[in-house]
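Dock adenine; give full complex structure.
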Amino acid sequence: QQEESLRPQNLAEYIGQKDLKQLLEIGIQAAQSRGESLDHLLLYGPPGLGKTTIALIIAREMGVNCKITAAPALERPRDIMGLLVNMAPGDVLFIDEIHRLARMSEELLYSAMEDFRIDLTVGKGTSAKTRTIPLSKFTLVGATTKVGALTSPLRDRFGLIQRLRFYEVDELSTIVSRTAGILQTQVTSDGAEEIARRARGTPRIVNRLLKRVRDYAQVTGYPQIDSTVATEALELLQVDPMGLDWTDRLLLSTMINQFNSRPVGLEALAASTGEDAQTIEEVYEPYLLQIGYLQRTPRGRIPTPQAKQHLGLED
Ligand code: ADE
C-alpha cells in the first residue's frame, strides 16, 4: 500500500529519464489526439529504475486500465489468452521479464501485437482448422533486464524500444525529498544527498535506504535526517560510501583474492560466492560495470584497479 503511494502518478511527477519522458509525452499526446492507443513499448535496463511505474503512468495519462503480469506467470498459452481477451480498448498490458516468455505464449503475442487477434489451430493433421479471436487494440509494455535475450520477431513488434539509465545523484536526492514529504519525515539536503550517493543510481534502493535511515533516526531520537544520521545508519546497514553492499564487496574481493584478478566466468563466480548467477548478472554487475569497478572481457569478468583501491586490496 505504502509502496504504491510512493510511485509518481503522472509524467510531471516523474523525476529523471528525461529523454524517455519527452518521447512518452509526445507519443501520448499524438495518440490521444488521433484517438488511438499508444504503440507497443519495450523498456530495458537494470531492476528498480521505474519500468512498472512508467506502464502505470502511461495507463493513467491515457485514461485506461493497466494489467501487470510477468512472463513466468504466462507459462501456458491459455494464461496469456485469458489476459488478452479481457482487455478493454486502449488498455495497457505490462509484462515484466518478457525475455522469459515460453515459446508458445510468445508466438501467440505476435499476431496479438501486430493485428490485434489471436490465431488458434484447433485439431490435428488434415482436420486441423484455424480459429481467429479478435482483440481490442491495446498497448503492450514489455520490460526486461536483458534486451539481448529477446527474439527478434518479438523485439521487432515494439514501436519504441527504450533503455532506462541509472539516475544521477541530484535526481535521486530529489526523489528522497519527495518521498520524505510523503512519509512526513524531515530530511536536510545534505542528508538526502548522502542517501542518494549510496543508492546505486536506483530509485527503488534510495527509497528503501530512506526508510531504514528514518527508522534509525526515530529510534535514536534524532529529530531530522542530516548527513551525520544518514552516514551512521548506512554504515550500520553496511552500505558503503559508493553504495556497495556486502554482496558487491564479496563479489569483488572473490575476484581479486581467489581468482587473482584474472578473467572469471559467471558460473565460477556464482559457485565461489554462493550467489545466484542470474542475480549476479542482472542485479549486481550492471552497477559495478557502470562505476568502472568491473570489466567484461570475452574471457570473463575482471575487477579494475579502482575496485582494488576501493576495497583497500591494492598489491
Ligand atoms: N519514486 C521512485 N521513482 C521515482 C521517480 N522516477 N520519480 C519520482 N518519484 C519516484
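Observed: Residues 6, 8, 13-16, 50, 53, 175, 178, 203 surround adenine (CB under 6 Å).
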